[in-house]
Design brief:
474 residues, Methylamine Dehydrogenase, Chain H, five-stranded antiparallel beta sheet, four-stranded antiparallel beta sheet
Length: 474
């Protein structure tokens, strides 16, 4: 029995050493004023269950563009709207202004860009003191029917002063991509080695995706890949990876003017390649408008279900079904509730899987509410949708934060799992097999049953066009 307990403690202790809470603080809301406290900052703290919602005085208006990061203990470090970087005391950090070079982009500082998923924040791989922000740039150059466009994607590097415990931007606006890009919808997942990151960025009105590899050497690789139908890009929508990183989904719609689409792909965490595309059109309603125009996407924690929020209803797709488009199930319809102060409807907008394994759905108007899917691993009504179940401290400007799955570990059994110890591997496997071993047997077994539990990634040929990596800054 003593040997069994030792084996159990060895596994559990190893996993707990790598606990990560980088996404435990969510920030939403408008910039604050001294007259009306219903306008201002809302902080949602997932260090408690249920999460603690509180008001804070903040200058930054999160109009769709929202990204933040905590330390591994869940303490807020800094946040951005893709124009400015502020610290946990809501002060602009040293050299933290003027992200982006375009004058129109800079004119939107602290006001919100009105584009979802235009920035991502990572701890620099292999570093305890450096962080990196990937951020897109908004231009007033018109593209098609849109009055704006996204012509560039940059990165900026932040350093934490270990003595003063403050941050400064030490490298800014280093170009990654210059092209006409999709409106935001930038997302990321961990490389199969458990340390590096893959970042996906769509090219406007094509089926091309830029794939960016972030390693301990910086932006190490950039390539384009093309496959499947041309997804609807649009001004609205959301992109998301499976929690386990094995699939990628993109939802786009041109607001209410024409049908949109959801496009789902397999994703290889070793190579960064997409494969096996599935195109799902978003139809119109009987009234002739697109009720999915302002919605979003989220995957269940077990990576088996896809949720589509589409203005007046929430839909669920079973990704294990033979006919995924035909598996769609309406799990909730808008109940008519309006914010009591403004009478603005609480329709379904952007969605985000939270650290407590619940999905939170913002509204498509300026309200003080979010919807909650309490049991997103369950099919049909059992997923338990609570409409307007989370009341915020202030009005929310349509936003949810753009967070990748920081807790995703290395993929066991892949060709690129060699740089990490066992504790860095994916933790969604049972430790029960090890309870039947002595400590000596466990140590001699290698990754044994864990490797057997890993899901194989299916890959098909794909077009891959390399692009030179940007020059690294000092």
């Amino acid at each position: 029995m003593k040997k069994i307990v030792l084996a159990f403690l060895f596994v559990i202790t190893s996993f707990s050493l790598f606990a990560q809470k980088e996404d435990y603080i969510w920030l939403t809301g408008y910039s604050s004023n001294t007259i009306d406290s219903t306008f201002g900052g809302t902080r949602i703290d997932f260090n408690t269950e249920p999460p603690t919602v509180s008001y804070e005085f903040r200058e930054m208006d999160f109009f769709l563009a929202s990204a933040s990061i905590c330390d591994t203990a869940g303490n807020l470090l800094f946040y951005t709207d893709a124009t400015t970087v502020m610290n946990s005391n809501n002060q602009i950090i040293e050299n933290g202004e003027e992200l982006g070079l375009n004058p129109y982009h800079r004119s939107r500082a602290l006001m919100g860009l009105g584009v979802p998923q235009v920035s991502l924040i990572f701890r620099y791989p292999g570093s305890d003191s450096n962080y990196i922000i990937i951020h897109e740039e908004l231009s007033d150059e018109e593209i098609g029917d849109a009055g704006t466009s996204i012509p560039n994607c940059y990165y900026s590097i932040l350093n934490k002063n270990s003595t003063l415990e403050n941050f400064s931007v030490i490298g800014k606006n280093i170009n990654i991509i210059s092209d006409t890009l999709t409106y935001g919808k930038m997302t990321a997942t961990r490389h199969a080695n458990g340390r590096d990151w893959w970042i996906l960025i769509g090219e406007y009105d094509t089926n091309n995706y830029y794939t960016v590899l972030l390693t301990n050497n910086g932006i190490e690789e950039i390539f384009q890949q093309s496959l499947g139908d041309i997804p609807v890009i649009g001004l609205a929508g959301q992109s998301v990876f499976f929690p386990d990183g094995s699939k990628y989904a993109h939802k786009g719609a041109f607001y209410f003017t024409e049908p949109g689409s959801i496009d789902i792909y397999n994703f290889d965490r070793c190579t960064g390649l997409l494969s096996n595309s599935l195109h799902i059109p978003i139809d119109t309603t009987e009234e002739g408008f697109i009720d999915g125009g302002l919605g979003g996407l989220a995957f269940s924690p077990n990576s088996e279900l896809l949720y589509h929020s589409r203005d007046v209803r929430l839909e669920q797709y079973n990704l294990l079904a033979d006919d995924i488009p035909g598996s769609v199930d309406t799990i909730a319809s808008y109940d008519g509730f309006q914010d009591p102060i403004t009478n603005v409807p609480t329709n379904y907008g952007l969605a985000q899987l939270a650290p407590n394994d619940k999905i939170y759905v913002a509204t498509t108007g300026n309200t003080r509410y979010m919807h909650i899917i309490h049991n997103p691993n369950e099919r049909g009504p059992a997923c338990n949708v609570e409409q307007h179940g989370l009341q915020l401290a202030t009005f929310n400007d349509w936003s949810v934060p753009n967070h990748p799955n920081y807790r995703l570990k290395a993929l066991i059994g892949s060709p690129c799992d060699t740089i990490r110890p066992i504790a860095a591997f994916i933790t969604t496997v049972s430790v029960i097999p090890y309870l039947r071993m002595s400590l000596n047997e466990y140590q001699q077994s290698g990754i044994g049953p864990l490797a057997m539990a890993a899901a194989a990634i299916c890959k098909t040929p794909n077009t891959r066009t390399p692009k030179a990596a940007p020059t690294k800054s000092a």
